[in-house]
Design a protein that fits this description.
The termini are far apart. The protein is built from 4 helices and no strands. The protein has about 90 residues and is mainly alpha-helical. The protein has a domain of about 60 residues.
């Protein structure tokens, strides 16, 4: 196996890849649901739990989850994609 400049192999263990795919798909699905069902998953939910400006934050969080989930699934910028994705998870 070839290594890159950092000394790590470009091929990760199967468990890491599977975890990355599953977490990415969950983020992606949750983001899409915020747009498809805004009263239940997006703006309405954010208003019920007291998040300020739910009409802005609902679509914003949904968009961030879609982008970050896609980055994780594709395997591109996984660390940068996971960080904002984890920060958008409401209670």
């Amino acid at each position: 196996m070839r290594e890159d400049r950092t000394g790590r192999s470009p091929h990760g263990p199967r468990a890491v890849i599977l975890t990355r795919l599953l977490v990415g798909l969950v983020f992606f699905e949750e983001g899409i649901q915020k747009f498809l069902f805004p009263a239940v998953m997006g703006t309405g939910r954010f208003a019920r739990i007291g998040i300020p400006a739910p009409e802005v934050m609902g679509p914003f969080v949904g968009g961030v989850e879609i982008v970050c989930g896609a980055l994780l699934v594709v395997g591109w910028l996984t660390r940068q994609g996971a960080s904002p994705g984890l920060g958008t998870r409401p209670a």
